[in-house]
Amino acid sequence: MTGAITHGNGVQEWFHTLRPNPDDPFNSLLARLQKTIFGEGWPQVLEVRVMGSSDTFKKMREGLGDLMGSSDWPISLVDGSPAPGGGLAGIQLHLLKGAPVETVRLDGDVVGRVFQANGTRFCVLGGIAPFDPLAHPVDQTLNTLLRIEEALATQGMDLKSLVRTWFFLDHILGWYGQFNKVRSQLFRERGVFEGFVPASTGIGGRNHMGSALLASALAMKPKGAETTVQEVSSPLQCPAGDYGSSFSRAAELSGPGFRRVLVSGTASIDPKGETAHQGKVEDQMALTVKVVSEILASRGMGYQDVVRGNAYFRDTGAVEAFESSLEGLGLPREKILASRNPVCRADLLFELEVDAVTTD
Question: Which label site among 76, 173, 316, 344 has the fewest CB atoms less than 10 Å from its CB?
Answer without folding.
Answer: 173
